[in-house]
């Protein structure tokens, strides 16, 4: 068994977008475009990259925060780094950030067929709250999204 990878998570920057777009295209059949990531940075969406021990950008995550709620928009691990705890590391970063901003809950959508991601989210305390029919493009037309939610720790007011 190999030793766990120590991921270095930092804020996404414009200089990261070539690697982020490359990873997105490698991981998903219907990836976000570079322009979508540029827009997320321009609008100030909390966005991170995770670097491997050798400095390669192995994954990324993007979310929004508004009115006490976080919405996870994108969590991606390059296929070479999947199964190494990277998704959990990025998810923990998102949750920690949302809690630090006093969000009370987080939402996300995930492809109904993405069983590994659903398992990750459920193991992190997310629960199914609905289904969005035909939400994602698919080779055969459209695929449903499972909507998940997690209540967050409420900060103590003094």
Descriptive labels:
single chain, 7-stranded mixed β-sheet, globular, 158 residues, alpha+beta
Describe this structure in words.
By secondary structure, the protein is an alpha+beta fold. 28% of the residues lie in helices and 37% in strands. It contains four helices and seven strands; from the N terminus they run E-H-H-E-E-E-H-E-H-E-E. The protein has helices spanning 17-27, 34-42, 86-100, 115-123; strands at 8-11, 47-51, 57-66, 69-77, 105-111, 127-138, 141-151. It has a seven-stranded mixed beta sheet with strand order 1-2-3-4-5-7-6, sandwiched between helices. A hairpin with a 2-residue loop joins strand 3 and strand 4. 28% of the residues are buried.
What can be said about the biggest beta sheet?
Answer: 7 strands, mixed
* Rg (C-alpha, Å): 15 Å
The share of residues in extended strands comes to 35-45%
Low-confidence stretches: none
What coarse outline follows from CA principal-axis ratios?
globular
Q: Averaged pLDDT, please?
A: 93
State the helical fraction: 25-40%
Number of helices: 4
Going by helix content, strand content and strand pairing, the class is alpha+beta
Strand order of the largest sheet: 1-2-3-4-5-7-6
Total strands: the figure is 7
Terminal Cα span: 47 Å
Order of helices and strands: EHHEEEHEHEE
How are the elements arranged and paired?
Elements: E1 8-11, H1 17-27, H2 34-42, E2 47-51, E3 57-66, E4 69-77, H3 86-100, E5 105-111, H4 115-123, E6 127-138, E7 141-151
Parallel strand pairs: 4-5
Antiparallel strand pairs: 1-2, 2-3, 3-4, 5-7, 6-7
Write a compact overview of the structure shown:
The chain has helices spanning 17-27, 34-42, 86-100, 115-123; strands spanning 8-11, 47-51, 57-66, 69-77, 105-111, 127-138, 141-151. The model has no long low-confidence stretch (mean pLDDT 93). The protein is built from four helices and seven strands; from the N terminus they run βααβββαβαββ.
């Amino acid at each position: 068994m190999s030793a766990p990878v120590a991921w270095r998570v930092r804020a996404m920057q414009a200089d990261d977008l070539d690697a982020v777009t490359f990873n997105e295209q490698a991981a998903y059949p219907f990836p976000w475009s570079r322009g979508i990531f540029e827009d997320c940075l321009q609008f100030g969406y909390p966005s991170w990259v995770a670097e491997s021990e050798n400095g390669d950008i192995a994954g990324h995550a993007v979310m929004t925060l508004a009115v006490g709620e976080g919405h996870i928009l994108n969590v991606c691990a390059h296929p070479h780094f999947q199964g190494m705890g990277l998704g959990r590391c990025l998810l923990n970063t998102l949750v920690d950030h949302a809690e630090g901003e006093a969000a009370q809950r987080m939402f996300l959508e995930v492809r109904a067929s993405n069983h590994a991601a659903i398992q990750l989210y459920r193991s992190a305390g997310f629960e199914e709250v609905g289904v969005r029919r035909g939400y994602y493009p698919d080779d055969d037309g459209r695929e449903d999204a499972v909507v998940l939610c997690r209540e967050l720790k409420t900060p103590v007011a003094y």
